[in-house]
Amino acid sequence: MEFLQKLKISGGVNLSNLRPSRDNERTTSFSSTASSKTDSKGDVSLPPRGSPAAKKMKILLVIDSPDTDWAKIFKGRQLHGGTYDIRVEQAEFGDLNLASYSDSGTMVDIQVYREGTVVVRSFRPDFVLIRQSVRGIGPKEDYRNILLGLQFGNVPCVNSLTSIYNFAEKPWVFAQLIQLQKRLGKDAFPLVEQAYYPNYKEMLITPKFPVVVKVGHANGGYGKVCVHNHRSFQDIASIVALSDTYATTEPFIPGKCDVRIQKIGTHYRAFKRTSISDNWKTNTGSAVLEEIEITDRYKMWVDECSQLFGGGLDIMCVEAIVGKDNKEYIIEVNDTAMRLFSDTQDEDQRRIADLIVEKMEKQYPPKLEPSTATGAALTGNCYKSLQSFQCAFKVLGGSSTPSASEGATKTEKKKNGGLFSGLIE
Ligand SMILES: Nc1ncnc2c1ncn2[C@@H]1O[C@H](COP(=O)(O)OP(=O)(O)O)[C@@H](O)[C@H]1O
Ligand SMILES: [Mg+2]
């Protein structure tokens, strides 16, 4: 046990990054497909490496918040009518770490916190679905290092890793939209006018007011300010100076409503969102949501945008504001982490599952032997001596002997928050 503990510490697992407040969320997140062995808690062990069950299984890593139970959505799904079972492992970026090797691919660690114990599960993903933004609010929530690791190990992913990487900076995406508008024309592709400032220093020329200032890369209404006069604009420029990032400005469009056109695989939907609170941002506060007809014009917008960055945008949406004069203004494109709306959420999640099954079937044809090793938890050089174990877990934060009956390690949490590494046969 000590051996494993030392190995993993030197292997770079960030022990200070544990988030013990996620207990309840985690217990529901790590359930498995129907084909896997389950215990009383709904947790499962990976089958032994090389066993028939492991050969028949493909591991799908879903990077998403625990609010959506992807194991449930994929329950009963198989590839090629039963050639492979799909086993879902789910974690947020913040609970995930990995190591990638040029010869043997990517080994992922995810943290599970259960009954006072942090358990780390290790596995080699065969496919990844990313449903969380690779960048959140502020510099701490930047997971591009994880993205690099998945690319390094050549792990197939939806959306494509190239597109997700390119979507990590909003002005970089907007630059592509400008090119699209140049090709398609202003009427066909009515993009809002924008100015870009790499830092606060050039934020001198006061634009026509009111203006919307968008600071840095953030979603969900964060970093967006509506500015009504040059004094406030200077104030915002001073905040941009502190935030040490770029900013964009665009005219404030007094809108009737927003429209959102989404595409999942080859399925399209359009929504109209009308704010009923006082907030000028319709994505914060209360709004009325209505599904509307998808016109050829809307379809063309999403089709064109889905071809950006090599066309790996299987999940995406275009957002536009409809002005009081009924003119439309495209304001942004969202990618793989786009929010699903409640009424159609279940159906859309099923469509995402269909899309993933289709992609995985292409990646893993029925007759060929799998190109990536699956099933065994640990295969790296440093774990060779541990291969006789069916399943290996590192347990952080407990000290007593783990109980094998649960399938996952379980220990009492030590008062001083000590470190423990456990192995379960
Ligand atoms: N130029 C604008 N004029 C009026 N409202 C805007 C403008 N830009 C954004 N908004 C409002 O703010 C919301 C958030 O802006 P958006 O650019 O979509 O950023 P994000 O969704 O990434 O936070 C939009 O849904 C829209 O309601
Ligand atoms: Mg938006």
Question: What does this protein structure show overall?
Answer:
- Helices cover 24% and strands 27% of the residues.
- The chain starts with a helix and ends with a strand.
- The protein is of the alpha+beta class and 425 residues long.
- It is globular and about 70 Å long.
- The chain has helices at residues 2-10, 23-29, 52-55, 70-73, 144-152, 161-166, 170-184, 230-243, 296-306, 342-363, and strands at residues 57-63, 78-79, 84-91, 96-101, 105-114, 117-123, 127-130, 157-158, 195-197, 211-215, 224-227, 247-251, 255-264, 267-275, 287-292, 315-323, 328-334, 391-396, 419-424.
- Residues 1-43 and 373-425 have low confidence and may be disordered.
- The strands form four sheets. The chain has a five-stranded mixed beta sheet. It has a five-stranded antiparallel beta sheet with strand order 4-5-6-18-19, sandwiched between helices. The protein has a five-stranded antiparallel beta sheet with strand order 15-14-13-16-17.
- It contains ten helices and 19 strands.
- It binds adenosine-5'-diphosphate and magnesium ion.
- Belongs to the synapsin family.
- Pfam families: Synapsin, Synapsin_C.
- It comes from Porites evermanni.
Q: Total strand count, please?
A: 19
Number of helices: 10
Tell me the span between the first and last alpha carbons. 13 Å
Which ligands accompany this protein?
adenosine-5'-diphosphate, magnesium ion
Task: Name the structural class.
Answer: alpha+beta
